[in-house]
Write a structure and sequence with these properties.
single chain; 132 residues; alpha+beta; 36% helix
Amino acid sequence: LVSLVQFAELDGVLANEGQFTVFAPTNDAFLALIAALESEFGAEATAALLSDKAFVTDVLLYHVTDGRRFSNSVFNRNNAKAVEMLNGGYIWANPDLTITDGSALTGDAGIAAANISASNGVIHVIDAVMVP
């Protein structure tokens, strides 16, 4: 995740003033996404896609929302809740504590660790990379 943030030159975005909530995929989640992309599009197309800075930036910003949102403000126990992300897209936080993205390529993301405080927000570790 850190190397992708540096590649997309987004390290300054989260260093700006303000509070953010980051849904941070695990390393295994990135490996699963690469395998899914290769299965769907082939290795060459996947390599080209992952070297496209605009694509990587869009995916990474799809994992960040404004504000410091702990799990009790992200998830509603009765209904799915739409959350606007920094790329302008939406994710859906489900009552079963999973997150649905805009792609059929990946399944729902589960929370691996929640409510990790950071100086400028909160981090929730997830087990899938969300694709807008």
